[in-house]
Structure formats: structure tokens, C-alpha cells
Design a protein that fits this description.
heterodimer, A: 181 residues, alpha+beta, OB fold (Dihydrolipoamide Acetyltransferase, E2P), two-stranded antiparallel ribbon, 10 strands, 39% strand, B: 290 residues, alpha/beta, Collagenase (Catalytic Domain), 2 domains, 5-stranded mixed sheet, 3-stranded mixed sheet, 7 helices, 29% helix, globular
Chain lengths: 181, 290
């Protein structure tokens, strides 16, 4: 429901001045070791290694495809996002990806400390796949980024959201990462 | 996770760019502190390029930016207490060890465990049923970025970063207004987030101003089985956890034909009877809350 509301909000004429700025793909690919495409089949919140006071959620995808740099091991099906619920409490980090079981995603993977994988750009390197009978588009929610540096040359024209066809994104990632589907 | 404000905006026809963080369990419940005013402390580790006193005073001043605002003409204060410097503390929240739950501002250094492109972040721990924030920590990524208190340097302006993160600490999500302090991105040398825009102030006032919605009232003990929620006349929530067995019935009644699938197959007369029973229970609960 939140995505629907978000979309509706962004399409409302009165919100033209509240659009967000997209960063380009170069920086995201630069930070990543590969890309995975799949559907969320498990969300497992638990204490982070090394600090039990911090909760993070391990996201597991059923993998449909992946790209890896020739020199890097292929990304695995799991990555972490900060936050998660524990009992009557929950931890959140504004700007971090918010996922649900069943979400179909394309994720640019960034290696993190202690052998973990995260989303490159925190949230910008994550696209949700939206399917209709005729097509599949990928959408990146640009509102979720968290103080990612945006040097002027990398700014593009403000757009309500980054949206393109799934095939176009997946092919572009394959080319940039030099991997194979 | 949802951002209920968007829905509210659509319904009200008023376009705000600010976004409040809400509890995923109760979309009407924004995350916020129950008491206006908190104490924060500084971790004793500092990056080499910043003088300790300058860093602390800059961050303390950044808290001050949010501490006294005018909400539709009404002065609304949120005092922050500087608890000084601590050592050996870690970010996060422990239910068992409440004494360790300082609201910490920390330079994380090589222990940074998030993507390298993130300059800083704020973790909020909250009660999922009430939206009450019980702990907040700000982490600064001095492993990948150089911070400065001098805006003339081509580095990340500490005040610019801190004022933004403190907005998160108060319960604000990212704004959709590029000019706002709560906008998500910040190029090096940017200093405009040091000062709040009206959009940022409006967001603060929506949470803490005189027209802010009251905290939910909870009847019974919340469990994972769920509770029944009612929006009261003043916009606040009554969360009825005393009758969890009826939750599915109530949800079906409230959701209507597009709600729970099981309702669509229930015999109409049985569903109507159950909904009537649930409604009477809610009315009794509503009377208890007045």
C-alpha cells in the first residue's frame, strides 16, 4: 500500500516541486561487486555480529539471475539491511531499504564488513520490479537514499522516480559489470 | 514499512513535502518521543581532522537548531541536554540493560558497517504499538568521509550533516523538497541544511506541535496475535488488545469486500452477526477511552 500511496503522491500535480533528484548509475556500479535479481523469500531480523544492541535484517532472495565482475566472486542470494523487529520493539534507519516478502528486486550488491553484503548506495542500488501482463518495469524509490554525496556533475534533472524497463536495466548492468546473465 | 503521511496528504489536499516515520503495525502512529526533550552524549573517539571541542560544540549547536520552533504561532520547545563525553559505549538498544541506552553520537571510523557511500545515519528504536521512540543513535562515517566544521573546506560540513540526522532522531523521514534539511542527499561543501526550511518545521510541528495527534491508548496487553485499532474523534488511536480473537472478524468488517479473502466466502448472515458483535465491543472500548 505504501508504494501505491507513494506513487499517487508523486503523480499528484500539486507535488511537482517536491520531486527528488536521481543520482547516476556510475557511482552505484562503481561501489558494487555485482547484481542479483530475484524475489524476497525470507526476512530474518537478528542482532548484528559484534553488537547485540543493533538489529539488522538478512534478506534472502530466490535468485532468478545475477551479474558479477569477472574478477569478483558472484554475489550470493543474501544481503543485509539495517533494522528489524525484536519483541515489542523495532529498530529503523531512515533511508534504508524497506522490504516485504514477495518483493521482486534487482539489487546492486556492495560488500560490507565481516563478509556481509549490502545494497550499494544504501537504497539507490535497489529497484523493485513491477509487472503487468504486458511488461516489467523497475522502479527505484529515490526518497530512501541517506545523505549520499551528490557532486554537481552527477546530478540529473529532477525526476519523480527512476523508472525503466526491466530488460533495459538488467542489460545495462550486465554491460557495466561485465558479467553474464 | 509505510509512510502514512502521504495518504493523509492525499486526503487533505494539502501538499507537504515532509514525511513522518510511522510504525508498520499502525500506520496512523508516527514515531516520536513521549517527552519533549532528551539527553544525548558524545562517544569519545574523534577523527583526527576535527578538534574535539569544535566537533562537540558544532553538534550541540545543531541540536539547538531543532530545540525551539514556532508551530502555527505557538512556541514549541524540544530541549536537548548535552550529557558530555562517554567512552566504551556502543550504538543500539538493549531491553535488558537500560543503562546502556544512551542517545549516542558516535564517530564510527573503521567499524563502519554500512555501505561506503553513506555519510551518516540515525538508528531509531521504538515501541511498535505506540510509536514511542526509546533510543536514538547517530553514526558518522569518518572512515570514508572527511568532516569539517569550516564551510570553506571542500569536505562534508559537520553541521549540515548533524542537523539532518537530528531531524531523523526526532522522527522525521526524508523530505521530498530538495531545499529541505531533511532532503536525502548532500554534496560536499553543502551548508544549506544547517538552517531549517518551513517544510522541516512543519514536519516537526506535525509530530510535536499543539495539533499533534495524541499517543495511542492501549487496552489489554499487545501480543503478536494483533489488536483491533480504532481511530478516535481526535485522530488518535485506540488499540484494543483485549479481544484479539475477534481481530480477524473486525478486520474483515472494516476492510469490506476487498479485505480478507475469507470474508468473501462467509455466509452473509453470519458475517453480519459477527461484525455487529465486534462493533458493539468496539463501542464499549470507545466509551472506556473517553
Amino acid at each position: 500500500m505504501s508504494i501505491l500511496l507513494l506513487t499517487a503522491f508523486m503523480l499528484a500535480p500539486s507535488t511537482v516541486t517536491t520531486q527528488v533528484v536521481a543520482l547516476d548509475l556510475d557511482g552505484l556500479v562503481e561501489a558494487s561487486s555485482g547484481a542479483i535479481w530475484g524475489r524476497v523469500v525470507n526476512l530474518d531480523a537478528g542482532p548484528r555480529d559484534g553488537n547485540a544492541k543493533v538489529v539488522e535484517t538478512t534478506v534472502t532472495l530466490e535468485i532468478y539471475g545475477r551479474h558479477a565482475r569477472p574478477s569478483a566472486p558472484p554475489p550470493t542470494a543474501r544481503f543485509v539491511v539495517p533494522g528489524g523487529r525484536f519483541g515489542r520493539f523495532a529498530q529503523v534507519v531512515p533511508g534504508a531499504p524497506r522490504l516485504r516478502l514477495g518483493d521482486e528486486l534487482v539489487v546492486l550488491i556492495e560488500p560490507l564488513a565481516r563478509g556481509r553484503q549490502g545494497v550499494a548506495g544504501f537504497n539507490q542500488g535497489l529497484w523493485r520490479v513491477e509487472r503487468t501482463a504486458q511488461s516489467a518495469t523497475v522502479v527505484s524509490d529515490r526518497t530512501g537514499v541517506e545523505l549520499v554525496p551528490a557532486p554537481a556533475p552527477r546530478l540529473t534533472a529532477p525526476v519523480p522516480r527512476d523508472e525503466r524497463t526491466f530488460d533495459a536495466l538488467w542489460q545495462e548492468l550486465a554491460t557495466r559489470l561485465g558479467g553474464a546473465r | 514499512m509505510t509512510r502514512v503521511l502521504l495518504g493523509a496528504l492525499l486526503l487533505s489536499g494539502t501538499a507537504h513535502a515532509y514525511v513522518l516515520y510511522t510504525s508498520p503495525e499502525y500506520e496512523e502512529v508516527p514515531l516520536r518521543w513521549r517527552t519533549k526533550g532528551i539527553t544525548f552524549v558524545f562517544d569519545d573517539r574523534l577523527p583526527q581532522e576535527i578538534v574535539e571541542s569544535a566537533a562537540q560544540s558544532t553538534i550541540a549547536s545543531s541540536f539547538d537548531v531543532w530545540s525551539a520552533l514556532s508551530c502555527t504561532g505557538t512556541a514549541t520547545s524540544f530541549p536537548f541536554q548535552n550529557g558530555g563525553v562517554v567512552s566504551g559505549k556502543s550504538v543500539g538498544f538493549s531491553e535488558e540493560d537500560g543503562a546502556s541506552n544512551e542517545n549516542l553520537v558516535a564517530w564510527v571510523g573503521s567499524a563502519w558497517s554500512h555501505p561506503s557511500s553513506v555519510v551518516a545515519l540515525t538508528s531509531l528504536t521504538y515501541d511498535v504499538h505506540t510509536g514511542e521512540i526509546v533510543d536514538a543513535d547517530i553514526e558518522l562515517n569518518d572512515r570514508d568521509f572527511v568532516f569539517s566544521t569550516d564551510p570553506s573546506l571542500s569536505e562534508m560540513d559537520l553541521s549540515n550533516t548533524a542537523v539532518h540526522e537530528i531531524g531523523h532522531l526526532l522522527g522525521l523521514d526524508h523530505s521530498r523538497a530538495p531545499a529541505a534539511t531533511m532532503y536525502a542527499t548532500a554534496p560536499p561543501e553543502e551548508t544549506k541544511k544547517r538552517d531549517l526550511t518551513q517544510d522541516d518545521i512543519d514536519g516537526f510541528c506535525a509530530i510535536y506541535g499543539p495539533k499533534a495527534v495524541a499517543f495511542p491508548e492501549i487496552i489489554g496487553v499487545p501480543t503478536d496475535a494483533g489488536c483491533i485499532k480504532h481511530v478516535q474523534d481526535d485522530g488518535s488511536l485506540l488499540i484494543d488488545c483485549a479481544t484479539p480473537a475477534e481481530q480477524s472478524v473486525a478486520s474483515t468488517c472494516e476492510a469490506g469486500p476487498r479485505g480478507a479473502g475469507s470474508g468473501a466466502f462467509a455466509p452473509a448472515f453470519a458475517l453480519a452477526a459477527l461484525c455487529g458483535l465486534a462493533r458493539r465491543r468496539r463501542e464499549r472500548a470507545d466509551r472506556r477511552s473517553v
